Amino acid sequence: MMNFWGTVIVLLLTFGQGIAQNPDKLQALWQQEGLKHAAIGVSVKNVTDGKVVYEHNPGMALRPASVLKLLPTSLALKLKGDSLTYQTKVFYTGEIKEGLLQGNIVIEVGGDPCLDSKYFKDAVFTKRLVDSIVGLGIRRIEGAVIIQGEGEQPRIPGSWPWEDIANYYGALYHPFNYRDNTYTVTLASGKPGTRTRVVSVIPSVPGVKLQNEVLASVKQQDDAWIYGGPEASVLLVRGTIPANRSSFAVKGAMHKPASVFRAEIEKELKAKNIIVEKKKGVSTECREWFTVESPLLKEIVFYTNKNSVNLFAEALGALVNPSDFETTVKQELSAIGIDSSGITIKDACGLSPSNALPAEVITDLLLWAKSHLGDSFFASLPRGGIDRGLRVYSADPVLGGNLRAKTGSMFGVRALAGYLSTRNGETLAFTIFVNNYTGDLVKIQETIRNFLRELANS
Q1: Are residues 46 and 119 in the same domain?
Q2: What pLDDT score was predicted for residue 350?
Q3: Are residues 357 and 395 in the same domain?
Q4: Cα(299)–Cα(282) distance, rounded to whole angstroms?
Q5: What is the extent of the structural domain holding 236?
Q6: Which residues cross the membrane (predicted)?
Q7: Positive or negative: CA dihedral 441, 442, 444, 449
Q8: CB neighbours (10 Å) of residue 81?
Q9: Are 46 and 59 found together in one domain?
């Protein structure tokens, strides 16, 4: 019968052989067709002791796509706490006499990105304002609805591709935000090759016309795009949608959310027979009315990572630093012992193709977050076997619920970073950046999945 120390030696030898053999098997995955000419950075560390489990070009700065969102989400929680809320204050000027408001309604903006957001069913600012007007018995407003700071167009990151900024994922973060700064164009299509028809634009965008050149196609996918800058009065909609559809949604970036909101409010009030006269020269003495608070910061972080909402990420980036996000990121990372020298950051959401990060930076951030941010951060990461974005990556029995990770994708980029629970009970923090791959992207995703499976089984 083998004694205790004999058993220990055998176990150590077996474990050592697994580690010695595994790197070669893992390395071979990155030599497959479609990856031969790619730039690949991988960093895997044990959450318990921070030791390297596997790495491949961990210090190479590569495009992270939406994996970059892990920076504003984690650092916003670190700097502001998970219970922070944005506040939007509403005032009225003048007096209310016999149903007449002899003044304006004034909205003091607070940067809340969630007003009337589809992600928060209770964030119904429009309804709250209309109900409050009705509740005060106001039937006529002499002045107007004034939104402070309106007209101050935010800066577009200079490296954002022109073809992105008019589509929904290119929605800019404003001091006042409404409906995720997104509108929906509903198209109807006929036979393949024929021009589609615009059915509706909701909400309507004042002062902007759409030039529709979208065609019906035999392809069963959305390949329609909106082109035009924030100051454009005409936006071009071009591309294809599936043929023979009575209703097909294409989403665009709402570049002037304040003016859209005002038009919506006036429409809602008119439906209740409340007239906004827009007279000038009314009283300007403000009376505080009510305040609307946003969801908690941890809830905004949840949807930022879970649904990869660029608008929310940019809002959190502004919380970290409204004017120089990159500098503060480097300072904060350096303060917690992470080498930030290889970082280039042009936005907070990952849309810019000029962003570049070493994989090891994100892995080290994940190690720190696991012990310092707790569930507020961990719960925001998509879960294998449940969240759609991880469908291909987690399609294996050993992965499934054992994988929590943020995805990132853009042309030529597939990225993944998060936590993996292994079969032997360990938790690994990992980051995988694949840039400039060729071939079928599903096969690239499957290669990443096979890599994770090997890690989980090691």
Answers
A1: no
A2: 98
A3: yes
A4: 40
A5: 168-253
A6: none
A7: positive
A8: 12
A9: yes
| Rounded-to-integer distance, Cα 87 and Cα 109, Å | 8
Same domain flag for 303 and 439:
yes
DSSP string computed for 372-435: HTTHHHHTTS-BTTTSGGGTTTT-STTTGGGEEEEEEEETTEEEEEEEEE-TTS-EEEEEEEEE
pLDDT cut 90: percent of the chain above it? 88
72-130 residue pLDDT tens: 999 999 999 999 999 999 999 999 999 999 999 999 999 999 999 999 999 999 999 99
Residue 8 lies in a domain: no
Domain count, the chain: 3
- Measured CA to CA, the distance from residue 46 to residue 455 in angstroms comes to 11
Tokens of 185: 């164009």
List of E strands, 161-202: 182-188, 197-202
pTM exceeds 0.90: yes
Tell me the pLDDT of the chain averaged across its residues: 93
pLDDT of residue 22: 63
Q: Are residues 453 and 380 in the same domain?
A: yes
Residue pLDDT, tens place only, 373-396: 989 999 999 999 999 999 999 999
Q: Are 237 and 185 in contact (CB under 8 A)?
A: yes
User: Where a domain ends, among 198, 229, 253?
Assistant: 253
Q: Are residues 405 and 353 in the same domain?
A: yes
- The answer as to whether 6 is a domain residue is no
Q: For the segment 23-78, what is each residue's pLDDT rounded down to a tens digit?
A: 777 888 888 888 989 999 999 999 999 999 999 999 999 999 999 999 999 999 99
Element counts in the chain: helices (H) and strands (E): 10, 21
- Residue 100, judged by CB atoms within 10 A of its CB (0-12, 13-18, 19+), counts as middle
* 431 in Cβ contact with 67 (< 8 Å): yes
314 and 432 belong to one structural domain: yes
According to DSSP, the β-strands at 357-358 and 140-141 are: unpaired
How would you list the strands of the sheet with 87-93, edge to edge?
A: 145-147, 105-108, 87-93, 286-293
pLDDT above 90: residue 14: no
Q: Does 225 reside within a domain?
A: yes
Cis peptide before 157, with omega less than 30 degrees from 0? no
